[in-house]
Write a structure and sequence with these properties.
Length: 161
């Protein structure tokens, strides 16, 4: 398998990462205004064989079920890169990036990351309540009204009020 190059884009405004992500999002049918908004949330960009393989974004905000602030995670992988552990590796790296950033920005009071799983390709993986692979450590905590899994990864420095 070709090596996966993972690039940290969180809060860096890297022109290459932003342009590649916007192009990727356009290819998968995302409207330009949504892509522009997501570009500000870009966290990790991954390349496989020099081509964009996937991206992660994070929006910081409250997560009422756990009464705290979390990074609301999104991850998208190109069809050509699916079933190659690309998503898991992106999410693992995203966790590392966000956790380090949160530890350096304690005033943000960011406790972890939350993800709502929408990909049908993860059905078999969803049978596992905890995902320790690649340091993801996302734990199933419930379901949305539409039946989508909600998973949370607590940062090691997190403390509850």
């Amino acid at each position: 398998m070709e090596p996966l190059e993972i690039v940290r884009a969180w809060r860096r405004d890297d022109p290459r990462c932003v342009a590649d992500a916007k192009s990727f999002w356009r290819e998968i049918g995302m409207p330009d205004d949504v892509a522009e908004e997501r570009a500000a949330e870009l966290c990790v960009v991954a390349y496989l064989g020099g081509r964009l393989a996937g991206v992660s974004t994070a929006r910081l905000g409250d997560f009422p079920p756990l009464k705290g602030r979390f990074a609301h995670l999104r991850c998208a992988v190109s069809p050509a890169a699916r079933r190659k552990d690309v998503a898991a590796r992106i999410i693992g790296h995203t966790r590392t990036v966000l956790e380090a950033w949160a530890a350096d920005h304690v005033q943000e009071n960011l406790l972890g990351m939350v993800a709502i799983l929408q990909s049908g390709e993860l059905r078999e993986k969803q049978r596992e309540p905890i995902w320790p692979i690649y340091g993801i450590d996302l734990t199933l905590i419930g379901y949305t009204p539409r039946g989508e899994q909600v998973r949370v990864g607590w940062f090691r420095h997190a403390r509850l009020d």
